[in-house]
Amino acid sequence: MLAKFETYFDGENWCARGIGADVFTQGASLDELMSNIREATELHFEDAWQRGEPGVHVGEEENGGLHN
Fold it and tell me: What predicted TM-score, i.e. pTM, was given to this entire model?
């Protein structure tokens, strides 16, 4: 399963909203945002991952994007 995010700066924080997944997080920097995206995505898909559902993998793609 691929988790895609829309990212934007709201004037105070960097924000990420999942596209097709009910995930939202934010961070003060882009590095913090990426870390928070990873954590939020892992938590969101944790049950499916633990059940061993096909296509659920937590990791990073070469371009720095996260996928689950």
Answer: 0.73
